[in-house]
Design brief:
The protein has two helices and no strands. The chain has about 100 residues and is an all-alpha fold.
């Protein structure tokens, strides 16, 4: 008798687990139907923003190169106007240009 009741209890436990899993699956499917269209919109907007950021980074690096070139030519012109073009060593003038995206305070 105990074996039969044990088997019935085991079967009822498995049935309860199966029913709970089905209920969770249905809730999950319903939530997916609601959230998927919104997520597609967010993903599309994120892709557009990423493309815009890439374009802006490219433009910024080109602008930094132009500014560096202008600064370099101004330094050369000012050195050409000096009576002694070879002055003391200035590490800031001879340092390689490294573009940065952060504010240097």
């Amino acid at each position: 008798m105990a074996t039969v009741l044990g088997m019935v209890g085991f079967i009822l436990g498995m049935l309860a687990i199966w029913l709970a899993a089905e209920a969770l699956r249905r809730v999950h499917d319903k939530n997916d139907k609601i959230t998927q269209p919104k997520m597609r919109g967010f993903k599309a907007q994120s892709a557009r923003m990423s493309a815009m950021i890439d374009v802006l980074e490219t433009r910024l690096s080109k602008l930094e190169r132009r500014v560096h070139f202008i600064e370099k030519t101004d330094i050369l012109k000012s050195n050409a106007n000096l009576a002694n073009p070879v002055g003391p060593y200035n590490p800031k003038l001879n340092a390689p240009f490294t573009p940065s995206y952060s504010h240097n305070a």
